[in-house]
Amino acid sequence: MTREADIIYEPTFAPADHVSREIVLAFAKELGLSSTPKKTEKVVVILSSLLWAAQRIRSGSSIANLIGWSHDDHHWVEYPAVGKRPVNEVREALITGGWLTLHTAAVFKRKMTVYHVSAGVFAKKGTWIQSTKPPVSIKTEKVPIYSISASIGGQKLTRTSAKKKFGRRLEEAETRVSSLAEYWQKHPLTIEGNQYCSATRVFNDGSLNRGGRLFGGWVGLPETTRLTGTIDGDPVAEIDLRGANLTLLTGITGNKMPKLPCGDPYAVIDAEREMVKQAVLELLGSGNPKKNRGSPKFIAQFGRGEFVPVRDKLLVAYPGLKELEKGVLDSNALAFRESEIVLATIEELKMRGIVSYPMHDALICKAVDAYKAADVLQEAFQRSCGVRPSLTIQGLGREVIILGCYNSR
């Protein structure tokens, strides 16, 4: 999440049971929201989503209790089931009643107001189901403004603009995600009583070949919380690709993986693992193998003068990094390749009767299916880049490491 808010509001939840619905209807009455039956259903979604967000904030042990509320019209066109006007009417009622109080106003390029969420909101506890997320979202390219250390762009394309630009390709991308959502609705991922059965595939840089990771409400939950979840009442496991981007890059560029201690791509370098991982993220994000300075985050965490020595070691261990090129072979290009691998795995598992959910470069599935799913994920990865990756599995009572095969094509 942005550092300005603990969570960004989006109206995608509904009550999961009758008791939760009654809580929401009573809240609407308390706010003085009277409406037609059709509008009532919109209000139910709007308030249910706020109460889920409050539950999520509290589970993250937030002190500030901040929620971000977008003022970008493009943000709200993705939620036609509720619409911008009803959302704003409910927001004004929440402000008037003291349920939300201003923290940061939307000014200049900031298109989001941040509010403190009152303690009374957290007291309204229920269980919620997320089944209406838009299948695809496309963000425009970000352009840096170096004079103010900021950037412009990154807004969502309206569906009309996206349809005009991409035509049938957009419809195919939407259908692919929607078909999974229909399947998930029969087998929801249930965590802390909340049910998740839809996701949005988010593309970047105004392209259907950049980014492409899937985001559902479970994605931002702590791993320990996700692992308490169930699918069809069965406990879940989480399968993680180890050093996915480094491994992908190595295979794509036709290089060989170095010998990996315990199958960990980040353990090759004689340096703190988290430092190596952060350096890799920044090299890939910049698309510049000659990047000579760490980000403020890197410097704050690891100190000045530490980035270049780690970078140089990485370039020796992973020569594929030398082929990075901004906008061509960088983090968003690799994220697209990775998302295609994860999607192909989920689709293959679906054909085999195995339910799975995406978690960036990982999968969530029933624990009983974990080894089968891991094998399918490795096979999909190898088909994509010629390298069979290492994996870890959490949720089987202990961490399980499955080593890969590192002969590049």
Give the key terms:
19 strands; 3 domains; 4-stranded mixed sheet; 41% helix; 409 residues; 14 helices; alpha+beta
Number of domains: 3
Largest sheet: 10 strands, mixed
Rg value: 22 Å
Record field, number of beta strands: 19
Helical stretch tally: 14
Structure write-up:
The chain is built from 14 helices and 19 strands. Strands 2, 6, 10, 11, 14, 15, 16, 17, 18 and 19 form a ten-stranded mixed beta sheet that branches. Mean pLDDT is 91; it is low at 144-152. The chain has helices at residues 18-30, 37-59, 73-76, 84-96, 119-122, 159-166, 168-186, 223-226, 244-252, 273-286, 296-302, 307-317, 331-351, 370-385; strands spanning 7-8, 13-15, 66-70, 100-104, 112-117, 128-130, 136-138, 143-145, 150-152, 189-191, 194-196, 200-203, 211-215, 230-231, 234-241, 356-358, 362-366, 391-394, 400-402. With 409 residues, the protein is α+β, with helices and mostly antiparallel strands. The chain folds into three domains: 7-130, no CATH class; 136-244 and 331-402, no CATH class; 259-317, no CATH class.
Topology, pairings included?
Layout: E1 7-8, E2 13-15, H1 18-30, H2 37-59, E3 66-70, H3 73-76, H4 84-96, E4 100-104, E5 112-117, H5 119-122, E6 128-130, E7 136-138, E8 143-145, E9 150-152, H6 159-166, H7 168-186, E10 189-191, E11 194-196, E12 200-203, E13 211-215, H8 223-226, E14 230-231, E15 234-241, H9 244-252, H10 273-286, H11 296-302, H12 307-317, H13 331-351, E16 356-358, E17 362-366, H14 370-385, E18 391-394, E19 400-402
Parallel strand pairs: 1-3, 6-11, 7-12
Antiparallel strand pairs: 2-6, 3-5, 4-5, 8-9, 10-11, 10-14, 12-13, 14-15, 15-17, 15-18, 16-17, 18-19
Helix pairs in contact: 1-2, 9-13, 10-12, 13-14
